[in-house]
Recover the amino acids of this structure.
């Protein structure tokens, strides 16, 4: 029996259920921290003629103000994944480029007093017209795309819009900054990737070693969004620097909805070429990505994250893509659950549904004829699908959904809609995929980027207590529990005997630029690092036992190693402390032909959505939703299902409820939780989940699965609604009002 | 100066009129189990019990609780509800959990809700991690058949 | 978002409360449930100099014979069948535990359930100065006949006849996109009295004259009344819905409440 694979209850739960979680706003790591309130632009686009802080400075309890001018003087623009004509600073200086953009930071004895003073800051704006500006374009072509289209029996040509949305964690951003001398220590619920630590350090003009970034033990959800808090680490860090005292800032909900990070809005033109029997001959994409007011690192990653999976789950050799990035006067974008996957699969899976109809095939049949069937499979754009059994997964999903029966019900006249989505879910991002934003020549002139590695440290105390230190910054995914399971198996103890720490401290943890919690990397590379460190220690323990006695208890071995190091085998390093790094395989830099294995691991899921539409009100009711996952080995099935349910909830939210809306002046219209509508308990159906396991050939064999249903659900639900209405033009979110309008047409 | 009985203990502290009860609990009394998610009464993360009823602490001023009894998540007795949450994996990040436990406690004190009633009662608590089903399952299990 | 500073008063009698309102006029706001007021303070959309907390005023928490005191919580509101139908849709469990019935009336959100119910039942609002029929009390969105120095003491809720309430919202407990309620008297299969009202799509809850008196209490009548209601309202489209949709929903809900009341 192994602990890995058991649906073990979580070690995290007790403290959280007792209200003893330690989230960033709960911490008081430095005494006398003052409180910041951020002054933000009221306009989406304006020249800033003057920011008068005199009244604010005189306001009760105020200790100082950091202005945009200070930020420009004290920091450098943030580097990003692509060149941009518009430099991005932590606060605006001469031009404000989105409503809510930071202009200044007021620091006072309390948040209440800071907000009072912030209101007294007078900003003199010269309004400018909102604009849209193309700042990046690259095109890619693999195989013989034109030929494929020329020989096609059917070309489907559609255009899909995926709106801006956000996973809105219930906990907002938080930063506590303490600038001392020439270095900054900051506590923040940052989620990685820690490459962004370097971006922040660069902006501050600090070597990485002088930006000590510490994450709290608990984080209240992130779903990618808390990767963007690094910009506020810089902003609040500069406030601390200028004022010479520690400063803390807790983002409120209005700030979060306006100025944290949004998921990109994308318009994708798709052309798909088919043979009459359904064979997919070629794909062309033309994507225009709205990244907001600035290209904020790691953007334009949303557009490139899925590059190796442009062809999705399908066999095809001819793929072309044109990627364009536009700046708009809106909140800058960034990681958000699915990260490029929802946008891609909405376009691709809707196209497949349309094609099926035009070919006279059931969508499931078209999928069956086109799914990748031999592994390993190398996609035209360089993705490596090392393992899988896609058809079996499809069969399992169709059976679980009772697909045949549902189609029969439809044929008998029941007003149902059935939608399918087949999604290859990538995990463990290649840190080099972003260099696809450059041409091969530009890449050749610079430093190549590749890989995704993680570190882990395990130590055993003199009395045999085991402590594991992670660098995967969990926000609810149960890393501490799974880590204990992994280590327990390797050291021959119970998980309850293992203490796992989730705080990452860039000065003391074993971390890489890839560390953090994103692209569902924990199950692959996080687990791999934990296992590698545990194996190192297990080897050491074995060596000590071989030397001193096979029957020695762990406690005895530990005591000996600490208290009697002279007795250890000759040449053995003292201590019981192991750090190991594990790298995901196959993540080379993009090649000269712009091919890249953008992710190390690929799970696969098939979703079937069954909906009924109320003819009077347009309300879409999901009467059944099935998802069958092949995520390789499940390290903890209880946690795995939790991730699937959560991913589905986000995807269903985007499908039916959520959209970030700006008016033509750039004013945010969905600025509170009354207007940005997140699903609540009565709004979501019960997801029925099935599992298959085709193990990954590395690490523990687990593939990431936290994002798949966020990628699939919008497509599956839209396909179901389109099926019910018999129309193609279904736009998200499919609110009752929108569906009703479709029905009138 | 106000006096509030919190989780059975009398607490006295200064509170300016505009100090929100949520901030009073978290920062004046150091009871950080109650969380703040929106400060406009929608997300439910701040839910506590005032004189036995679940209320939004972000929509109350601390001075309003003067002389009254409050229960926060820290004061909830560990029992079948929390055990059911563990069994059903009804929490992930745990940020919404205190508010949900308080809401569930209030709901369970009123009788035996059906699944539908549980879902409706939870409609005032936003969770972005679990998709809600495990939470409803946990509470339904406590209700019993 | 923290509220701006204010002076906090906690009167213990109606007289004290009234005197405070008289002293401060429109610089003062009454704090009862706070479920609508405090978000506005937290957003700094309102900056009253004085908050008059009436939650401890003696005698305002009585509910008896259809008379509901100013501090009676929505969760304690019983005995009025139409309101009982509406209450599950009024906010959420925690907001009903604190929010007051009279507070909802005084706040006069056109998308709110209780103002519509009071109007349809032909209820009234009793203040420190006078008693006003609901139809005279509601003026426009968030605007009532209340003078700045006037305090709502209680609201009066007739039981109504055959009553029904329906709303349509995106999520359970959300402010409604459309609302309808009715109180009808049916004798011998014909409608002898009818009060039908709609909300959300109008500036304030509104009674509609659908010429139901004398009509047979049938599904056909209900359907026609719905069509008339749809034609009678002309809401602006909003972030969530078009004008045509909101009108159609209104008509649909009117049809539904009448169908149920006739049954």
């Amino acid at each position: 029996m192994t602990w890995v694979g058991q649906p073990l209850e979580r070690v995290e739960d007790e403290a959280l259920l007792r209200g003893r979680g330690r989230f960033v706003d709960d911490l008081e790591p430095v005494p006398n921290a003052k409180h910041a309130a951020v002054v933000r632009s009221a306009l989406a686009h304006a020249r800033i003629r003057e920011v008068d802080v005199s009244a604010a400075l005189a306001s009760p309890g105020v200790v100082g103000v950091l202005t945009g001018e200070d930020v420009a003087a004290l920091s450098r623009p943030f580097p990003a994944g692509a060149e941009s004509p518009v430099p991005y600073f932590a606060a605006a200086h001469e031009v404000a480029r989105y409503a809510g953009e930071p202009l200044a930071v007021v620091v006072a004895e309390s948040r209440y007093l800071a907000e009072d003073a912030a209101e007294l800051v007078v900003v003199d704006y010269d309004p400018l017209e909102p604009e849209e500006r193309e700042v990046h374009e690259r095109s890619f072509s693999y195989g013989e795309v034109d030929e494929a289209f020329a020989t096609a029996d059917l070309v489907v040509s559609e255009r899909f819009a995926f709106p801006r949305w956000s996973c809105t964690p219930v906990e907002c951003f938080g930063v506590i900054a303490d600038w001392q001398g020439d270095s900054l220590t900051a506590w923040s619920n940052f989620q990685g990737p820690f490459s962004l630590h370097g971006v922040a350090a660069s902006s501050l003009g600090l070597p990485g070693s002088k930006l000590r970034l510490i994450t709290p033990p608990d984080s209240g959800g992130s779903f990618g969004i808390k990767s963007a808090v690094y910009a506020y680490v810089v902003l609040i860090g500069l406030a601390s620097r200028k004022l010479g005292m520690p400063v803390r800032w807790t983002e409120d909900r209005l700030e979060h909805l306006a100025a944290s990070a949004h998921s990109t809005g994308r318009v994708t033109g798709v052309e798909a070429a088919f043979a009459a029997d359904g064979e997919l001959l070629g794909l062309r994409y033309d994507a225009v990505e709205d990244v907001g007011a600035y290209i904020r690192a790691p953007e334009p990653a949303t557009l490139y994250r899925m590059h190796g999976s442009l062809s999705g789950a399908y066999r095809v050799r001819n793929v072309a893509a044109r990627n364009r990035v536009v700046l708009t006067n809106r909140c800058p974008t960034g990681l958000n659950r699915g990260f490029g996957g929802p946008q891609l699969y909405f376009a691709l899976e809707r196209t497949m549904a349309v094609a099926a109809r035009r070919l006279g095939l059931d969508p499931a049949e078209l999928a069956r004829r086109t799914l990748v069937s031999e592994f390993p499979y190398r996609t035209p754009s360089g993705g490596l699908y090392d393992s899988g059994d896609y058809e079996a997964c499809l069969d399992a999903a169709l059976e679980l959904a009772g697909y045949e029966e549902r189609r029969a019900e439809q044929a008998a006249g029941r007003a149902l809609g059935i939608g399918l989505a087949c999604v290859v879910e990538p995990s463990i991002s290649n840190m080099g995929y972003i260099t696809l934003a450059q041409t091969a020549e530009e890449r050749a002139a610079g430093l190549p980027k590749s890989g995704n590695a993680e570190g882990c440290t395990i130590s055993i105390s003199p009395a045999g207590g085991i402590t594991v230190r992670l660098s995967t910054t969990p926000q609810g995914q149960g890393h501490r529990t799974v880590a204990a399971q992994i280590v327990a198996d390797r050291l021959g103890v119970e998980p309850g005997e293992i203490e796992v720490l989730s705080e990452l401290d860039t000065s003391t943890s074993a971390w890489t630029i890839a560390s953090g919690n994103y692209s569902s990397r924990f199950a692959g590379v996080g687990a791999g690092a934990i296992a590698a460190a545990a194996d190192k220690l297990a080897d050491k323990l074995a060596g000590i036992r071989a030397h001193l006695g096979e029957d020695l208890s762990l406690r005895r071995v530990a005591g000996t190693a600490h208290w009697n190091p002279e007795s250890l085998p000759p040449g053995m390093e003292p201590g019981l402390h192991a750090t190991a790094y594990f790298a995901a395989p196959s993540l080379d830099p993009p090649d000269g032909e712009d091919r890249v294995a953008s992710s190390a691991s690929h799970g696969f899921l098939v979703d079937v959505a069954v909906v009924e539409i109320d003819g009077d009100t347009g309300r879409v009711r999901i009467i059944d939703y099935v998802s069958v996952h092949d995520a390789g080995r499940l390290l903890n099935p209880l946690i795995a299902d939790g991730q699937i349910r959560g991913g589905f909830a986000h995807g269903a939210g985007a499908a039916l409820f959520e959209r970030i809306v700006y008016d033509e002046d750039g004013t945010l219209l969905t600025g509170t939780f009354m207007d940005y509508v997140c699903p609540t308990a009565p709004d979501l159906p019960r997801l029925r989940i099935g599992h298959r396991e085709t193990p990954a050939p590395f690490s523990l064999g687990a593939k990431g699965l936290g994002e798949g249903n966020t990628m699939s659900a919008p497509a599956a639900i839209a396909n179901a609604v389109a099926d019910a209405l018999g129309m193609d033009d279904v736009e998200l979110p499919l609110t009752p009002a929108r569906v009703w309008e479709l029905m009138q047409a | 100066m106000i006096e509030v009985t919190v989780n059975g203990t009398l607490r006295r502290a200064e509170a300016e009129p505009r100090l929100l009860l949520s901030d009073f609990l978290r920062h004046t009394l150091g009871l950080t189990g109650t969380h703040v998610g929106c400060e406009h009464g929608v997300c439910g993360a701040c839910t506590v019990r005032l004189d036995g009823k679940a209320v939004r602490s972000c929509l109350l001023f601390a001075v309003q609780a003067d002389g009254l009894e409050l229960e926060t998540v820290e004061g909830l007795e560990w029992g079948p509800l929390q055990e059911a949450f563990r069994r059903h994996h009804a929490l992930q990040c745990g940020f919404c959990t205190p508010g949900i436990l308080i809401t569930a406690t209030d709901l369970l004190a009123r009788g035996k809700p059906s699944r539908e009633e549980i879902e409706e009662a939870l409609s005032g608590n936003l969770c972005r991690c679990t998709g809600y089903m495990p939470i409803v399952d946990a509470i339904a299990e406590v209700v019993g058949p | 978002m923290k509220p701006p500073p204010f002076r906090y008063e906690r009167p213990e009698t109606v007289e004290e409360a009234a005197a405070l309102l008289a002293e401060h006029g429109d610089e003062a706001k009454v704090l009862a449930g706070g479920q609508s007021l405090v978000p506005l303070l937290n957003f700094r959309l309102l900056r009253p100099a004085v908050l008059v907390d009436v939650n401890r005023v003696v005698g305002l928490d009585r509910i008896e014979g259809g008379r509901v005191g100013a501090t009676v919580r929505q969760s304690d509101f019983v005995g009025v069948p139409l309101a009982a139908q509406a209450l599950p849709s009024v906010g959420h469990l925690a907001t009903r535990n604190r929010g007051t019935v009279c507070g909802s009336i005084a706040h006069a959100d056109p998308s709110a359930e209780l103002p519509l119910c009071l109007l349809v039942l032909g209820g009234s609002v009793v203040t420190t100065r006078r008693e006003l029929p609901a139809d005279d009390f509601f003026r426009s969105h968030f605007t009532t006949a209340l003078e700045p120095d006037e305090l709502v003491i209680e609201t009066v809720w007739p039981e109504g006849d055959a009553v029904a309430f329906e709303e349509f919202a995106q999520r359970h407990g959300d402010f409604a996109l459309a609302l309808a309620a009715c109180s009808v008297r049916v004798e011998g299969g014909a409608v002898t009295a009818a009060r039908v009202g709609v909300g959300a799509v109008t500036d304030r809850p509104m009674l509609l004259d659908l010429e139901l008196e004398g009509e047979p209490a049938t599904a056909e009548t209900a359907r026609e009344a719905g069509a008339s209601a749809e034609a009678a309202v002309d809401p602006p489209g909003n972030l969530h819905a078009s004008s045509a949709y909101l009108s159609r929903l209104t008509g649909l809900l009117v049809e539904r409440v009448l169908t149920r009341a006739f049954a």
Q: What stands out?
A: The radius of gyration of chain A is 26 Å. The interface with chain C takes residues 111-112, 115-116, 119, 252-254, 616-618, 657, 661, 669-670, 672, 674-675, 677, 679-680, 682-683, 735-737, 740-741, 744 of chain A (CB under 8 Å). DSSP finds 20 helices and 25 strands in chain A. The mean pLDDT of chain A is 97.
